[in-house]
From TrEMBL:
Chief location: cytoplasm
Cellular location(s): Cytoplasm
Family label: Belongs to the DNA polymerase type-B-like family.
Superkingdom per UniProt: Eukaryota
First and last residues shown, out of full length: 251 to 589 of 589
Source organism per UniProt: Digitaria exilis
GO cellular component: cytoplasm
Name of the featured protein: RNA uridylyltransferase
Top EC group: transferase
Record field: catalytic activity: RNA(n) + UTP = RNA(n)-3'-uridine ribonucleotide + diphosphate
Length: 339
């Protein structure tokens, strides 16, 4: 008897590739979207520089890592010297400045792990989160962007997975599921493990880029134009990869034993990371190591109930891709909270 994870993909899986590619194209942000985003950045820069002339503004997250859809928000990081003032004081002052400059719904959210000001842009309607000196996020944004340039199937896969996660209600960290950032890392990890590989492990290669953020070294090979053909040996189509992705997380990954590590390009054991017991709020039921902040588990909000929900959703998706007549539709059916 073959176990479930040894199941082979259906033979007609490639009939769905054009449908998935069309979907990917429709999720990509338009040129108009990018122009509006730039206008928002420009008007924000103007507001900020009045109060903090030396502040530098960085875009991070999906508006800069190339994994953004037309529904994504705009994430901005202000880099500035702070003297005796606390980050929270600066955020409160920033909120005042933005209100004066007639941005909408300005709100300082100071109790979060990363305190931010949230607002929306009256011109574009985009929602925008602003944080201070969160340069690790700026560094991991560049890492994701560089990975995306190696094999276009990463972007295709990640767009479809993010879209699926949003519609199925499993992209909500405040409810104990996973962030978009975590899903992209899962996609990279998965493509690093294909045979033949679709993606390399950039942090294990020669370090051509180094950025030191408060003592944390962010270093990896960033000359990705040299890696354009890296994934060429791997001929898998996007439909096959999407099926294999869900199959991997449903049946293959060893949640009890392993930590997903994009930094290593493989899994490492929870024992080795000392992520074996619950520490404070970190339950470590699904372990995803941040590539730079290596003691940060991106799955730390996952609890006993949501790990079950996540695994059921992975299984549902794999099954639909395996047996359904129209998986391009059924895969993305919105989760019905009522029933
Ligand atoms: N981030 C991080 N650590 C986390 C969560 C997020 O460093 N635990 C940083 C990452 O740089 C990430 C950014 O914050 O890219 C924004 O996170 P998130 O909103 O989850 O992802 P986006 O890529 O912006 O996706 P979306 O399109 O859903 O906005
Ligand atoms: Mg975002």
């Amino acid at each position: 008897r073959t176990s479930r994870w040894q199941v082979e993909c259906r033979h007609d899986i490639d009939t769905f590739t054009p449908g998935f590619l069309a979907m990917y194209e429709s999720l990509k942000p338009s040129e108009e979207h990018k122009t509006k985003q730039q206008q928002l950045v420009d008007s924000l820069t103007k507001s900020v520089s009045k109060e903090w002339p030396d502040a530098r503004l960085h875009l991070y997250g999906s508006s800069a890592n190339s994994f953004g859809t037309s529904h994504s928000d705009v994430d901005v990081c202000l880099e500035m010297e702070i003297g005796t003032e606390s980050t929270v004081e600066i955020l409160l002052k920033l909120a005042d400045v933005l209100r004066t400059d007639s941005f909408d719904n300005v709100e300082a959210i100071t109790g979060a792990r990363v305190p931010i000001v949230r607002m929306s842009d009256p011109e574009s309607g985009f929602s925008c989160d602003i944080c201070i000196n969160n340069l690790l996020a700026v560094a991991n944004t560049k890492l994701l962007k560089d990975y995306a340039q190696i094999d276009q199937r990463l972007l295709q896969l990640a767009f479809l997975v993010k879209h699926w996660a949003k519609l199925r209600g499993v992209n909500e960290t405040y409810r104990g599921t996973l962030s978009s950032y975590a899903y992209v890392l899962m996609c990279i990890h998965f493509l690093q493990l294909r045979e033949p590989k679709s993606l390399p492990c950039l942090q294990a290669m020669e370090h051509t880029y180094t950025m030191n953020v408060h003592g944390t070294e962010c270093a990896y090979f960033d000359k990705v134009h040299q890696l354009q053909d890296f994934g060429a040996e791997n001929k898998e189509s996007i439909a096959e990869l999407l099926w294999a992705f869900f199959h991997y997380w449903a049946f293959h990954h060893n949640y009890k034993r392993d930590v997903i590590s994009v930094r290593i390009g493989n899994t490492i054991s929870r024992k080795q990371k000392n992520w074996t017991a619950r520490i404070g709020n970190d339950r470590h039921l699904m372990c995803i190591e941040d590539p730079f902040e290596t003691d940060h588990d991106l799955g730390r909000g996952v609890d006993r109930q949501t790990i079950r929900i996540l695994r059921e959703e992975f299984e549902r998706a794999a099954t639909m891709l395996q047996y359904d007549d129209d998986p391009c539709v059924t895969l993305f059916e919105p989760y019905d909270y009522e029933n």
